[in-house]
Hints:
The complex is a heterodimer of chains A (about 450) and B (about 70). Chain A is built from 19 helices and 14 strands. Chain A is α+β, with helices and mostly antiparallel strands and about 450 residues long. Chain A starts with a helix and ends in an 11-residue tail after the last helix. In chain B, about 80% of the residues lie in helices and about 0% in strands. The longest helix of chain B has 14 residues, at about 15-25. The radius of gyration of chain B is 11 Å and the shape is globular.
Amino acid sequence: MSDLAGETLAQMGAKATKPLEDLLTIPRYTGRVAYVLSQSTDPEALSSLLLLLKHENSDIREMVIRALGSSGDKRATYPIIRHIKQYGASPTAILALGEIADFQAVPLLIEELKGIQRWFAARALGQIGEPAVEALIKVLNQSEYNHQGVAVYALGLIRTEKALASLTEMVKHPDQIVSWRAAMALIEIEQKEETNEKNMRTLTDSFTLTLSPTAQYFYASIVDELLYLPDMNQFLRTPVPPPFPVPCRYSGGKANPEDFIALDGIGWLISDRLRTLFTAMGFTGWATYPVELRGKNGELIHGYHGLFVSGKIGPVDYTRSQVQIVPHTLIGLEPDIILKGLYPKDHSWDGSDFFLSPDSALLMVSELVIKALSSLKPPAKNWIAEPLSEVKRSIRFEKNISFLTKEQKEQLHELRNILESHSSSPVPLETKAALEAKTEVKQLLDVLIKNRCLYQTENIQ
Amino acid sequence: MKFISNEIKNYNWRIRKDKLEKLARSGTADSIAALIQALQDVHDELAQMAAESLVNIGLPAVQPLIATLLNGE
């Protein structure tokens, strides 16, 4: 509600400016109030924000800069540049310049490609787009501006003809990492453009394949000082292996890895055994990249590969999912409202065995993959398969529900009302109802178990 | 005030819409509270209708809206 309250205040313009300005310097309110002023229809509202760039409290200055970025108002460009020159470049200030997308920030952002915030500067230059292309091309061959291919990454975000021509040139660059980033950017652009709907199929029985959410199993992280991946999502979907093994290290869980290893919570490493299985079965939509995996004590662990997923399916159509109320997955918490079923758009699947949707990080696989994994002996651990029809997404507190149908929204409204009216009750709704109805002991225990008040269903007479 | 807000919330969206239109015309202190409550309606069009009504009411709605904003609900 506070989001729309803020939008309403912004729409009120000058009527709300003064009362909001009075609250700006109270640190716990600054962020929210500054954002509303940055969106205000009152052109004078920006002035009070600009004045606060000289405030002694650095937290207040950062919140104001974030709001100035959201305003997209070019009047804020020079004040933010001055702030960076006085206090140094923070990610917030650089990203604000990107959001404003004023070409006058290009020289400063190019200089920042040499500093520790270089990847933020690259993103900001990418947001500025065409006006940044010339300046980026000029520094492509200067290593201090193009450390780990950062300038090439920025160009890859700008998809103009000139940027693409330079990227094509950079594929031949002697620095292998620069050349790899250029190739990756070009292939990603090509993949986005080549989707041919005529060859796409409607998905049949498929599953999501997730790795164990607990910290029980070995999990790993990429050592980003050696290879920085500004967009892991893009990396995993663009099968262009880096010029050297991606350095990965143990970051938690058991010391001995299983067949699957979760990588930075978004990627996957697979064992030699799985790679052999996927190859032997002729599965499509996947590839591997080399990794150098180190264990808990820094020891080298052989026999693992990074997994690329190049198979594709279209966006998820949530209008086909069902709105349901379910017990919370954690003991003692109130029931949740979920959307059940993950149904990608019809005629949008390229037929691969491994595939990803553009708006979900969930790895989807064909039934054949699940069968092959289930047949392994000894069994492969650390994976969970769920039919797409069973996938759940919590929407109880979700604010942006524009993707739902009118009927789904009304169901959600009713369920939220029911939960709200019982939220002060320490007893779960279903349990309370069962107790009040003087249910038989066996049935009551079933209800308690369902509500996760007890753990075992066995031995109940 | 709370009573009016909760009462509206319990109706289906068509009735909520009718009631909101009536409240928007009245412009009283009670209507402001109910309109602010309606900002969280699951139906964008009802939430937007409430927002537009509050903008039309103007100054008397500013402080209650700021209170809502700062409560972070």
